[in-house]
Amino acid sequence: MVAGLSAVMKTVRALTLPADVDLAMFCAYLAQQRVGHRVFEEQGQQVLEVVTDADAERVRADYAAWRDGRLALQWLPRPPRIRTFRWRVVRRYPVVTALIALSLICLPATWPLEGGGLGPLLPWLTIVPVDGSEGALHYLTLRDALLKGQVWRLVTPIFIHFGVVHLAFNAAVVIEFGRRIERGAGSIALLLLTLLIAVFGNVAQFLSVQAPLFGGLSGVAYGLFAYVATRGRFDAAPMWQVNRSFSIGVLVMLVLMTTGVTEVFGLFIANTVHWVGLGLGAALALLWRPTRGNADEL
What does pTM read for this prediction? Predict the structure, then answer.
């Protein structure tokens, strides 16, 4: 064990003790007091060395006081690293954290669909109230839902996901571009962007197909990606830069999905919300580019 003391430095032997004496707590105390020292084994005994004679006298006095009870030492609890890291992420990216957390909480809402039902939670998240009790879907118009005061439905479809893979893919994109926006433009900016993209995308999707069962963070993901990529044309900071190959890949994938090729495999995608999110994100980057005062590079 070496604590703040080079093995080649001239040292002073402060203590020579039996090998079975546990010095861990005492050495922790010395480190806390910034006393450079090292402990090594020699001929079946352990030796504690320090740098100066003054340090040696202090170590002997403190060790004697510790052994006879005049100096009380105790281990100081260390905060778990995982917990510290988790709360640091939450404080730094509260909006991104909230989006992913709400999506995880709402994930079970679509599970009853596998059995042909809607379950108790899903009808509260769809853009309009849905009833499937009579074997077919019945739902209100968007106007009727809003007149009933159910304005949350303009946003909540983004928290509907049809499986873990669906959520994982969307969450990865939102985390990547959401954290850039939240760090560079601020949490309020990210929240406003998310709400605007969600509302316009969800409404456009519902009006385009008149079907209430759609959802996912993908529209928001496309919007956040478009915002960052477009803003990168005006701001040279690294957080706003997006690899050109990635951008081209995103656009090619969106065009392919719009052709309906995925429907051959039974995968029906709400492409309207993707295009609206992409266009709105880019437009907002052209019109509004707030800057967070204490932003640092990612």
Answer: 0.70
